[in-house]
Design a protein that fits this description.
- This protein is 41% helix and 19% strand.
- With 327 residues, it is of the alpha/beta class.
- It folds into 2 domains: 165 residues, D-Maltodextrin-Binding Protein, domain 2; 122 residues, D-Maltodextrin-Binding Protein, domain 2.
- The strands form 2 sheets. It has a 6-stranded mixed β-sheet with strand order 2-1-3-10-4-11, sandwiched between helices. A 5-stranded mixed β-sheet has the order 7-6-8-5-9.
- The chain is globular and about 65 Å long.
């Protein structure tokens, strides 16, 4: 090979590598969309918007939230799965990602697996709060169990829909407590909570948010347990289910940022580094706290393991309980 031919080959190889290198160095150079697979105004959407606002400030490019609804979050999740892995379409994941594969009927499997997403970083943590109405007369988990055992048809719980995060904690609790409770699915957590306040259902288990503060402080709702491994800082007097004799019923809520499968490692690193720095910022953490969340960065590899482990453990629990999702 002549010297000139070798030079031409080297130049051609460098030319091919420059666009990818330049793109990585300039990322982001346009608007980033974060798909939120649930409606605006809920806990997941709120966390996503607080995060997006701060990312916009730190990255110098607009980061916007795009709510895509349908099938309990599956529609938006699928769209994120099918997005181009270039860092401009991301996904706000929550622990419901671990639920989807375990409640889908075998004849209608999901078009994606939990491993079909690139973990970027954890953002915040919270938990479910089991609440009952003041009119119920219940003041503790033991009161609830005693009532259900005395009057099997007297206890019901509302959820945001079959197979969702507000359905499973009470259902798994009832199974472990050995009691019968009636599940009443609603089209969202808000109407389920309103009917709990009104006493039309005995209890519900929404994810904690600032919206619970007023009905709890006014006494309309009585919190009897939280599903985290330790008490929530927002409700320090409310014991965990584990404290009340149910150590296996730890059902935390985590919020995290993901990308489509194949997201370039340099993009993952850039975004993950930003999330890690943000979690240390007092003002950012305060904004999340006021919405009922604790800022908590989780590195990509650890986040991926959490998702896989949660999916497996939840599947084992569901199968052991014999829960049906054909309601």
């Amino acid at each position: 090979m002549t010297k000139n031919a070798l030079s031409r080959r080297i130049f051609a190889a460098l030319a091919l590598s420059i666009p990818a290198w330049a793109a990585a160095q300039s990322y982001p150079n346009r608007t980033i969309e974060i798909i939120v697979p649930v409606s605006a105004g809920g806990p997941t959407d709120t966390v996503a918007r607080v995060m997006a606002q701060r990312l916009t400030e730190r990255l110098g490019q607009a980061v916007v939230v795009k709510n895509i609804l349908g099938a309990g979050g599956v529609v938006g999740t699928e769209q994120a799965f099918r997005a181009k892995p270039d860092g401009y379409t991301l996904y706000m994941g929550v622990n419901s990602m671990a639920i989807y594969p375990n409640v889908r009927p075998p004849n209608n499997p999901l078009p994606f697996n939990v491993t079909d997403f690139t973990p970027i970083g954890g953002v915040a943590d919270s938990a479910h709060v089991m609440v009952v109405s003041k009119a119920s007369g219940l003041r503790s988990v033991s009161d609830l169990v005693a009532l259900a055992k005395k009057s099997p048809d007297a206890v019901s719980y509302g959820s945001a829909g079959v197979g969702g995060t507000t359905h499973l904690p009470p259902a798994l609790f009832a199974h472990q407590a050995g009691i019968k409770v009636l599940h009443v699915p609603y089209k969202g957590a808000a109407p389920a909570l309103m009917d709990t306040i009104a006493g039309r259902v005995t209890l519900s288990a929404p994810g904690y948010s600032g919206a619970l503060d007023e009905p709890i402080k006014s006494g309309q709702l009585i919190p009897i347990a939280v599903t985290s491994s330790k008490r929530l800082p927002f409700l320090p007097d409310v014991p965990t289910l584990a404290e009340q004799g149910y150590p296996d019923l730890v059902f935390p809520i985590w919020y995290a940022l993901f990308g489509p499968k194949g997201l370039p490692s340099d993009v993952v690193q850039k975004l993950s580094t930003e999330l890690q720095a943000m979690a240390q910022e007092a003002e950012y953490a305060k904004k999340l706290y006021l919405q009922g969340n604790v800022a908590n960065y989780i590195a990509p590899a650890a986040l991926g393991k959490i998702l896989v482990d949660d999916t497996r453990r939840l599947g084992e629990r569901i199968r052991a309980s014999g829960l049906s999702f054909a309601e």
